[in-house]
Design brief:
alpha/beta, UDP N-Acetylglucosamine Acyltransferase, domain 1, nine-stranded mixed beta sheet, 11 helices, about 20% helix
């Protein structure tokens, strides 16, 4: 097995990358109410889609397609403003939106495999030997050249990137069983039965290879990353099967050489409000599990050309402060403050993710809202917020109290939502002065 942090020289000119961004993202609602899941903001200044795109660029993969379907306007705008290659490199990040047409294209994407099938006519315009398929909703740093090398050395038809997980987490993933050569012998989507989970545990010989001896026997979960040989992909998609994890991969195990590439670094599936909240707040730790400061493989995003943030007497204890913010004698505790945020005096943020603003509000707009007794964009004076996500362009007035304490884990309210015990103020939401949530 190749060391995970090895930088390698691999021919990547024969690889085409496809990022799947078409899912509706219902488990991330209301963050996905007005945007697609890959467009959800991350770590103050990024978006989820920046992760797979950056991993591709850092791996020397510069031919990247992004498949979209739901609420994709902001995602399209972000891609067009962020990723531009020079005319000599031949690189691109190109969006393929779901479209209706005749025949097999006469409906929206029915699953991951269906999305790729419906866009084969675009992919086949390129000369490629391998197709790398990625999900658009996970946080990780991975050199895909490692997978390409392992794929070629094993003689695989398909390679699935996997990660060891404890049995307590296995029910949320596709779980694989492998032999000592890492060839996949079984693939079970989201197994629930304890006896079935026990039968899928990693064998002792493979545990020894991975250095997991003496630990609780884990299981191998799919990371939603697949590398296909071109002709194998065309053959396996010559049907109406909808999904890679549920249909294509399990069926291919019996007829093709399907191998696992095992990754043991940090990887977090950002599939729920709780996982999104926890993954973001982990970034304010002294030693976060994901390091945005690693410039050997940087995470790219849109260059906004914003001014540096201005701190007017604020107290910050474990905070991430993004570009273009103004913090006026407030307190930020274990929180993330997104771009262009304005936080007023005596405001206290505790375990809060403020996604920031898309623009700076003009004086005339502020006066118009004040005339209607409504707050300006930002967070007003003497407001306290804890265990919350404040979406973009929210207007939160003075003297508000926002907390999920004492409330159900799930609430749908005209002004806010609660999911997984976290209060979410939706995009463009307005919370009047003195409101207590």
């Amino acid at each position: 097995m190749i060391a995970q942090n090895t930088r390698m020289s691999v021919n990547t000119s024969n690889v085409l990358s496809v990022i799947l961004g078409g899912g509706q993202g219902t488990r991330l609602f209301p963050l996905t109410r007005d945007r697609s899941k890959p467009a959800v903001p991350l770590a103050g200044k990024y978006r989820l889609v920046d992760i797979p795109i950056s991993n591709c660029i850092n791996s020397g993969l510069r031919r990247i397609y992004l498949l979209t379907q739901f609420n994709s306007a902001s995602l399209h705008r972000h891609i067009s403003q962020s990723y531009k290659f020079d005319m000599f490199s031949g690189g691109f990040v190109e969006i393929l939106a779901a479209e209706r047409g005749d025949g097999s294209s006469a409906s929206w994407y029915q699953g991951t495999a269906d999305a790729v099938r419906k866009n084969l006519l675009h992919f086949l315009n390129h000369d490629f030997e391998y197709l790398l398929i990625l999900s658009g909703d996970a946080l990780y740093r991975l050199d895909f050249r490692r997978i390409i090398v392992e794929h070629a050395e094993s003689g695989a038809d398909i390679t699935v990137s996997t990660i060891p997980v404890p049995p307590s987490e296995a029910q949320a993933f596709g779980i694989m069983q492998v032999d000592p050569t890492l060839r996949i012998t079984r693939f079970v989507e989201k197994p629930k039965d304890p006896a079935l989970l026990d039968s899928l545990r990693i064998e002792s010989a493979v545990q020894a290879q991975l250095g997991l001896d003496g630990k609780e026997a884990p299981l191998l979960a799919s990371m939603g990353i697949y590398l296909f040989n071109r002709e194998v992909l065309l053959k396996l998609l010559d049907n109406s099967l909808a999904d890679f994890g549920k249909h294509i991969i399990p069926a291919a195990i019996a007829s093709h050489k399907v191998f696992a590439s095992i990754f043991q670094g940090y990887w977090e599936d950002i599939g729920t409000i709780r996982s999104y909240f926890d993954a973001n707040l982990d970034l304010v730790a002294d030693l976060p599990r994901f390091n945005f400061f690693d410039m050997s493989a940087p995470i790219f995003t849109r260059p906004r050309f914003l001014p540096a943030s201005k701190v007017n007497g604020a107290q910050i204890n474990h905070g991430v402060i993004s570009d273009g913010c103004i913090l006026n004698q407030c307190a930020v505790n274990y929180s993330i403050v997104g771009v262009r945020s304005v936080i007023e005096q005596d405001c206290v943020l505790t375990r809060t993710i403020h996604l920031g603003c898309d623009f700076y509000e003009s004086e005339s707009s502020i006066r118009q809202y004040e005339a209607r007794n409504l707050p300006r964009i930002g967070i007003g004076r003497n407001t306290q917020i804890e265990n919350a996500i404040i979406d973009k362009n929210a207007r939160i007035g003075d003297n508000c109290r926002i907390s999920p304490a004492g409330k159900p884990d799930k609430v749908d309210h005209a002004q806010y939502y609660i999911r997984d015990g976290i209060v979410i103020i939706p995009k463009n939401g307005i919370i009047a002065r003195g409101t207590v949530i």
